Prior knowledge:
Oligomer: single chain
Number of helices: 3
Mean pLDDT: 96
Bound molecules: nickel (II) ion
Structural class: alpha+beta
Largest sheet: 5 strands, antiparallel
Helix content: 25-40%
Strand order of the largest sheet: 1-2-3-6-7
Low-confidence stretches: none
Shape: globular
Number of strands: 7
Amino acid sequence: MAILNILRYPDPRLHTVAQPVNAVDTRIRRLVDDMAETMYAAPGIGLAATQVNVHERIIVLDTSDDKTGLRVFINPRITARSGEQEREEGCLSVPGIYETVRRAEKITVEALDRDGQPFTTEAEGLLAVCIQHEMDHLEGKVFVEYLSQLKQGRIKNKLKKRLRETM
Length: 167
Ligand code: NI
């Protein structure tokens, strides 16, 4: 397995719309495993393929306390959503920035698992937020884009300044 490089906002590649996975083969399973390793090492609770510059519809996440709850969604699709929740979110591509976003409270998701088998799952609370956040990445959307232009500008400046300081 390998730890992959995570793109940092405002990298324009984060705005790429991901393509569906045609076949869950060895290459895809290796990518899933690398994404999981990258997420745990970061550490984070979710990662989309977009964030490692692979533009295919794959997300991994683990919202458990002890890192034993890895979930893999290939070609995920939200088929139902209800309610609303507001929760503070962060993102491995936007380090150090935490902002509140409004999302559906409950969702139903259809996807393929790591073996290419279709499944349907219902999620609510943090898990539902995490799935929606990662699925946004596959559409080329980063969570800070729900914020005002003014706030987005401030975040961009902050991250660029930090990047300069570490070079
Ligand atoms: Ni993210």
